[in-house]
Design a protein that fits this description.
Layout: E1 2-3, E2 9-10, H1 17-36, E3 54-55, H2 64-70, H3 75-91, H4 101-114, H5 116-122, H6 126-144, H7 149-152, E4 154-158, E5 162-163, E6 172-175, E7 183-184, E8 191-192, H8 197-214
Helix pairs in contact: 1-4, 1-6, 3-4, 3-6
C-alpha cells in the first residue's frame, strides 16, 4: 500500500488529487510571492529632499530571511534543484538555466507545473517535492501575508528618511495598534510622532509614485 504525504491511501501514483491540486496552486503562486517579497527589502534609491530627517550612513537590508529567499540559494535554488531532479528522472538531461533570478523562478515554477502529471503518476520523489514546495510557499506567505497583523503591524510603506548622499532609508515602516508615541523605523530608528503622520503619508506616497514612474 502506498500513502500520499497527507497519509491518504493511493491506488496508484504518488500524490492524491488533493495534494496534486495544492502543489499545482503553490507552483503558480510562488513567482508572485517572490515579487511581493521585494518591498520587504531595504531599497537604495535616490529621493528628493524636502525637509525630511537626514541620516549618516547607508543601511544594510532589513530582513536576512527575505534576502535569503530572493537570493540564489532561496526560492530559485529550491525550484531549480527540483526541476533538475525531475528532468534527470524523466529525460536524463539537465535544464537550461538563464535570465535574471525572477525570470528563473518563473521558468522553473512553470516547468514543474507543466510536468506535474508525470511527477504525480511516475516520480517516487513526488512526496518530498510536494512537501518542500509547501514549506517554501508557507515561508513566503508568512512574510507577505502574516497571520497576525497585530504582531507584525500594518505596513505603511518605505521609510522616507534621507542620507547625505540623497539615498533614502527605505526600510518598511509598520504601525502597531496602540502605538501612541509614533511610528519607529526598524532600521534607522527614526521616530515619526503622530503629529508628523500626515507628512509621513505624503512622503511615502511621493516616493512610491516616483519609483513607479522610474520603472
Amino acid at each position: 500500500m502506498t500513502l500520499c504525504v497527507c497519509r491518504t491511501e493511493l491506488a496508484d501514483g504518488f500524490l492524491c488529487a488533493r495534494c496534486r491540486a495544492a502543489t499545482y496552486g503553490r507552483l503558480l503562486r510562488i513567482p508572485s510571492l517572490y515579487r511581493l517579497l521585494e518591498p520587504e527589502l531595504q531599497p537604495s534609491a535616490a529621493a528628493p529632499s524636502y525637509g525630511r530627517v537626514r541620516l549618516v550612513e547607508a543601511p544594510l537590508p532589513v530582513s536576512a530571511e527575505v534576502l535569503t529567499m530572493r537570493g540564489p540559494g532561496g526560492i530559485v535554488g529550491v525550484l531549480e534543484d527540483w526541476w533538475a531532479a525531475m528532468q534527470a528522472s524523466r529525460a536524463g538531461s539537465a535544464p537550461v538555466i538563464s535570465g535574471t533570478i525572477e525570470q528563473r523562478v518563473n521558468t522553473a515554477a512553470s516547468r514543474l507545473a507543466f510536468h506535474l502529471d508525470y511527477v504525480v503518476s511516475s516520480w517516487p520523489q513526488a512526496g518530498s517535492f510536494a512537501t518542500e514546495i509547501r514549506q517554501l510557499d508557507e515561508r513566503a506567505l508568512a512574510i507577505v501575508c502574516p497571520p497576525d497583523t497585530a504582531e507584525r503591524g500594518e505596513r505603511l510603506g518605505p521609510c522616507p528618511a534621507e542620507y547625505d548622499t540623497g539615498a533614502r532609508c527605505g526600510a518598511v515602516l509598520r504601525y502597531f495598534r496602540g502605538s501612541v508615541h509614533g511610528v519607529t523605523c526598524p532600521w534607522c530608528a527614526v521616530v515619526y510622532p503622530p503629529n508628523s503622520w500626515a507628512d509621513l503619508r505624503a512622503w511615502i506616497d511621493h516616493d512610491e509614485q516616483e519609483a513607479l514612474l522610474a520603472g
